[in-house]
Amino acid sequence: GLFLIVFIMSKSQKFFIDRQESLGKLNGYVEEMYSGHEVVRISRGADNVKKHFGGLNEAVYNANWKSQFLSGIMQPLMNVIGNLAYVAVCVFGSVLALNGTITFGVIISFILYVRLFTSPLGQIAQGMTNMQTASASAQRIFDFIESEELSDESDKSSEMPEVKGNVSFENVRFSYPDTPDKVIIKNFSAEVKAGQKVAIVGPTGAGKTTMVNLLMRFFEINSGSISIDGTPISQLSRETVHNMFSMVLQDTWLFEGTVRENLVYNMEGISDESLERVCKACGLDKFVHTLPNGFDTVLSESVAISAGQKQLLTIARAMLQNAPMLILDEATSSVDTRTELLIQRAMDKLTKGRTSFVIAHRLSTIKNADLILVMRDGDVIESGNHETLMAKGGFYAELYNSQFDQAS
Q1: DSSP 68
Q2: What average pLDDT does range 210-231 have in this prediction?
Q3: What is the Cβ-side half-sphere exposure of residue 315, based on CA atoms within 13 angstroms?
Q4: Each residue of 191-209: pLDDT tens digit?
Q5: Quick one: which of 251, 247, 262 has its CA closest to 350?
């Protein structure tokens, strides 16, 4: 019986693993298609989505019935083996009793022994089924738990130092942990002085966003160093580095809550006067005052809010944070010209007197940058202000003129 349990388990375990994996794929696909259902409908891809879903659903169905059939067969098999043992004891016992070899009491004893032996075997079979389900689920959990953790930083001070805003990149080299052979940033060096507006430009995949992620310590560099006011950021805790920066990204992040809660997210002691002042600086005051409850209006699907207004709200949030340095991922491509001008003015007020790093997409918006770093294939190939780079007639001039030609 035990050999039979082990044999069935060896055959059925792969179906339990398949069940968990196929269910994970199905859930992931449903979530992905649900969040992007507008694109699916506009692209008229509903039939293909249903077809793919049907395939994933079929895989879940097959893995489920196979695993349940093989595990469910163990209990009945144990009962059959137990009953066969009863028959064997009765037949052989009767023959031996008739021959006078054993007494009738011995037969009764063996029948009880069979009952005592087969009952635990049945319980083991039932337990093995539960163990197989748990084992397949645990395998995925352990894969997650065994992921490499961030290094311990309990020894580093979390006190916020006084930040001037001088930033230095020295021979920075970086590749993502999953692809160590593919070097993203090869040999990046740059000096940024306090209060400067630095624009990072270059084609898609040049490493612009990666540089910002390294500056924020979202990833650790392979070699070289990044220093703020002469202190390598590796000597500061991640929280300290994050507190030095405010960020305005392309992806505007608002949650379902009041306007006030969205603006003062994770900040304390923000007065209504500060909110009014910041919203006025961003050109949001008229929008807020038209809302039914002003700052206490809950932002939900029922409240009409444009992409430009969302962007202005994130800029207002960054103004309230009042961090000594800024990271701006320009996101004016999805708004009209008037709103773009409004956002640009708000960004100019936000960057005033602060060291700021701007990932630039429209080169016309960064003409007034103090320093432009031109990136290509993970290297800074040109640097300087707009006039210097245009006079040089290199890669930046080529990029700028190509955008100008497209615009005309």
Answers
A1: H
A2: 86
A3: 31
A4: 888 888 888 888 877 778 8
A5: 247
DSSP string, 355-366: EEEEE-SSGGGG
Residue 154 lies in a domain: no
Q: Which of the four pLDDT bands, split at 50, 70 and 90, describes residue 261?
A: confident
Positive/negative CA dihedral, 16, 21, 24, 29? negative
Between CA 116 and CA 119, with CA 117 as vertex, the angle to 5 degrees is: 70
Distances (CA, A) of 176 to 180, 182, 276: 6, 8, 43
Q: What is the mean pLDDT of residues 113-119?
A: 76
% residues pLDDT > 90 (the chain): 1
CB atoms near residue 155 (< 10 Å):
6
The answer on 278 and 129 residing in a single domain is no
Residue 392 has, within 13 A of its CA and on its CB side, a CA count of: 17
Statement to judge: residues 124 and 205 lie in one domain:
no
Residues with Cβ within 8 Å of residue 319, at least 6 apart in sequence:
246, 278, 281, 282, 349, 350
- Give me the domain span that covers residue 401: 167-407
Domain shared by 40 and 127, yes or no: yes
What is the three-state SS of 111-161?
HHHHHHHHHHHHHHHHHHHHHHHHHHHHHHHHHHHCCCCCCCCCCCCCCCC
Q: What kind and span of H or E run contains 383? A: strand 379-384
Return the pLDDT at 408. 42
Query: pLDDT for 296-325, tens place per residue?
Result: 888 876 677 777 788 888 888 888 887 888
Bridge partners (DSSP) of residue 248 are 328
Residue type, 31: E
Q: What per-residue string of b and e applies to 53-76 under the rule 16 or more CB within 10 Å gives b? A: eeebeebbeebbebbbebbeebbe
* pLDDT the model gives residue 342: 72
Residue 116 — very low, low, confident or very high, per pLDDT cuts 50/70/90? Answer: confident
Q: Can you tell me which residue has the tokens 């409850």?
A: 293
Q: Can you tell me the distance from the alpha carbon of 204 to that of 112, in angstroms, rounded to the nearest whole number?
A: 78
